[in-house]
Amino acid sequence: MALSIEEALIVVRSTIRNPAVPALALLLAFLFMSLPVAQAQTAPPPLEETAGPMGAVIFGILFVLFCVGFAWMVWRGDKTKKSDTESKKV
Q: Are 8 and 2 in contact (CB under 8 A)?
């Protein structure tokens, strides 16, 4: 026996209007969320070292190079902007 969309909406609306349904839903949600907390908590296993110090060195070099490149681009752009404004005044 399949319900039409209108009949399903009537059932849902009547269920939502019942004050016991939201309270029961909250109780079930609380119980469901508290299940992992109630279990005995064990210490996680130690993490394995997946990356050596070489990755940090490469990252540091690239970071410094990008900072220097950014500063150079800003300095070069500021220098060309000043020369453009001076040429427009003449």
A: no
Quick check: pTM over 0.85?
no
- How big, in percent rounded to 5, are the helix, strand and coil portions of the chain? 75, 0, 25
Instruction: Report residue 18: phi and psi, to 5°.
Output: -70, 120
d(CA 72, CA 80): 12
Contact indicator for 40, 48 with CB cutoff of 8 Å? no
Instruction: Flag whether pLDDT at 88 surpasses 70.
Output: no
Q: In whole angstroms, give the CA distance from residue 71 to residue 67.
A: 6
